[in-house]
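<backbone_tokenisation>
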Amino acid sequence: MKVISIGTDRKIFEEGSAVRGRMVEYGRLFEKLDIIIFSNRIMNHESRIKISENVWAYPTNSRNKFWYVIDAIRVGKKIIHNSKFLIHNSVLSTQDPFETGIVGLFLKLFYRLPLQVQVHTDFANKYFITHSLLNFIRFPLGLFVLSFADSVRCFS
């Protein structure tokens, strides 16, 4: 199975980090694991970094955080075309049902790939929603993305 994971943890670019080690372990379970990470151009990463034999990390190298989603979709499209992702042997996995979820949803609808969305927080909690304007916007966005998910992975 081929997996595209979309996330925000930039520690994956640090040699010896726990995140990078975990991705290597996940890679042993799959034919190929491609990880798209929201990142700024300032980080100055290559367009693709080999983590292990079948695990690759792709920074978005965005101008600023407002371009993360568009740049991640662009990177995802390139990965899908270059790796010949097919419905029967591929899955998209997003770190959350918010910004990374929008990227996964777009790729799911455009390429008809299954989408797995991870939920790390109780985003329907009134304290989450009222904490900030961004969280107020994220609540309906999360509900929308989850309505299209083929599976949901919840953490406690």
Summary: The longest strand covers residues 2-7. The mean pLDDT is 91. Strands lie at 2-7, 32-37, 49-52, 55-59, 90-94, 115-119, 151-154. The radius of gyration is 15 Å.
